[in-house]
Structure formats: C-alpha cells, structure tokens
Design a protein that fits this description.
The chain is mainly alpha-helical. It has one domain. The chain contains 5 helices and no strands. α1 packs across α2 and α1 runs antiparallel to α4. The longest helix has 18 residues. It starts with a helix and ends with a helix.
Length: 91
C-alpha cells in the first residue's frame, strides 16, 4: 500500500492534484484493470506495471493530460527504482 501512496504523490505533483486525488486515480486504475474485488495488498510489480501502462494511461487520456506519456514513463521509472520495497513490503 505504501507504493500506491508514493506513486500517488508523484502523480499528484506532476499534474497538480491533491495527494488523495493522485492516490485515488491509481486506485481507480487498479480497479479498472484488475476488477473491484482484487485485493490491493495482493498486487505485485508486474500487475502495477500493467495498471500504469493500461488503465492509468486511459484515465490520464480521458482527463486530457497532455504530457501523459512522460508522466507514465516517470511513474514506471519510480516503480522500477522502488521494486525492492514492493517485494519487501509484500505488496
């Protein structure tokens, strides 16, 4: 769950949203990608990459975020840099 807070804060900084809104976008993208009953605590690195590349991409496009490609690349870089934390935290 910490990785969602972290990525949400990075997202909110990039598109000037509140912290809860940034986390909310990521959580909604997870629900879009994996369904409403997939437990967030059972996410792994690969699933988070899919969420960012698919559902979050679509949500950012729907919000008319012009630099969404760069934003997604930055989030994927952050996710990659913190992959060990995801594994340790059991996310």
């Amino acid at each position: 769950m910490e990785i969602i807070k972290y990525l949400g804060s990075k997202l909110s900084e990039s598109i000037e949203l509140s912290l809860p809104a940034g986390r909310g976008l990521i959580k909604l993208a997870i629900k879009d990608e994996l369904g409403p009953f997939h437990p967030i605590d059972k996410l792994n690195y690969e699933k988070l990459v899919e969420v960012i590349q698919n559902s979050l991409r679509k949500r950012l496009l729907d919000l008319n975020i012009h630099n969404f490609e760069e934003l997604l690349e930055n989030l994927l870089d952050e996710l990659n840099s913190n992959q060990s934390l995801i594994t340790i935290a059991g996310v």
